[in-house]
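Lab manual, section 2.4: Encoding a predicted structure.

Procedure: take the sequence of the chain (599 residues), apply the prediction step described in section 2.3, and record the output as structure tokens. A sample record is shown.
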Amino acid sequence: MSQPPRPPYRLSARPSVFLLAGAFITGAVLFAHGGCGSEPGDAGPTDAGSTVSVQVLAFNDFHGQLEPPTGGGGQILTGVEDGGPVRVNAGGVTYFARHIAQLRATQPHTVVVAAGDLIGATPMLSALFHDEPTIEAMNQIGLDLVAVGNHEFDEGSTELLRMQSGGCHPVDGCQDGDAFPGARFKYLAANVATAVDRTLFPRYDVREFEGVKVAFIGMTLEGTPELVTPTGVKGLVFKDEVETVNALVPELRRQGVETLIVVVHEGGVPAPGSLVNECKGSGADGRISGAIVNIAKDLDDAVDVIVSGHTHQAYNCVIDGKLVTSAASVGRLVTDIDLTLSKATGDVLEAKANNVIVTRDVAEDSAVKELVAKYQQRATPLANRVVGWVSQTLKTPFTQMDPAGQSTVGFVIADSQWEATRAANLGGAHVAFMNPGGVREEISRDPGNPADVGEVTYGELFTTQPFGNTLVTLTLTGAQIEQLLERQWQQSGPNLITRILQPSAGFSYAFSASAPLGSRVDPASIRLNGVTLDPAAPYRVTVNSFLASGGDGFDVLTQGKDRLGGAVDIDALEVYMKVHSSQATPLPAPALDRITQLP
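Recorded output:
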């Protein structure tokens, strides 16, 4: 349905300056490189009595990161100095809460929104308590609205409903010793249908500011079923993002709503090295690429702002006349969106955004800090719970020192992922592959120490496999599996990078270390349960979600068909340890006989 044209208004990235060390504005480090500049147009009436200002504070992909993230994942690029990148430490929920409070204090009309993956694939501190700590922290912070993301469904739709309504976990009960109140904020799920004209959560939320109505439409990506376990989304239908929003526009217009904000768990990809308020990329006109671009172009022109996520990237764009933002991930940024609305028409006269870094040079929020400390204390016994036993140390690919790149803990992880997806209704996997970089630590036992009986704790498993990836089962031909194996050796400038995938039991092959790149694996040697792979035949392959998206250069996996999401990797490993080990019969180290290196 076509809509009458809106009055022209201005869209821009808020101007800012790079602040020298020790200086700050509302506790945030800001810097130049505004996202997209301004579009021409009459900003409309400027008389203060004729307009109302509204602030939207947005973030995405928080993933339960209560403690400050470490390493590169806990930093934000702020520029280049003396030929090298300049980064600042960012994130941590106690600092995140302080930044939100400071920004909220600048504007009485403020709405705080999140574009999905608030929970799921979370660090141990939140995951041990089924993400209740994250929900409680966001209650204290004053989050208003959350669009569901794919990871919201990691433990299934019933568990997600509990996150909203509260109550103790049906299996583990109230682990923290008191009742779980549920979210004081509202989940939105416009494109997640439970029946005809019914959705899992409300489709939108309308807020009114001095007589002007603003609608927030929340939804996840249509492809969510490909990213989660089938049982978690059974009975749900995930609809097209654009069709969902466009169908709601006439309904909202009838309610007198002229300002529409879409909060969607789908995103784009900027160019490597882009700053947080830029929009550079490999897409049209040198701007970002990715699914959010076409979504923005196809959405009804009634939509004013799109708060996006999913790709864990930062950008600040104007696409097809719509402001499009994303705030990286794990609470390192907050997007400050400022709207000027006409009281007469309800239209947006000006929209501008600024991605603000959640620096750690501000005072921590004391109430949130107390909450985190409470769960840190109660996490210790849960992390120390025994989930299995090993007969000897299981080594990583980097400590095994096997000439062929094999490792015992890598094989155990691959075996656990195959077992978690081999059932027909869970993927029907024939083989699983684990990337060596995802195997972080050994699972150790000291046979010379009588006190070390080979107990394996949940905390040890989490340290070994900490990324919270989900399992994805997809179909490749035998020829594509051969291509996958050949990508284990990749030329990067003058350097040869080797990443030997860890295969599950029953899969074997041989390679020649001296053969040319692209011809190192002998096709006749690639066998599944002793039978040579047929290049034309289809095989079901399980990998983690990082690999499934082409991570580590294994782009052939992006060609996989009939994708089906599965369990979180750490959960699959825990189940495997419980099934295959006991104190009397600890898990033996797998034989290093799946990969053969030839001269």
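Check your result against the sample. The two ends are 67 Å apart (CA to CA).
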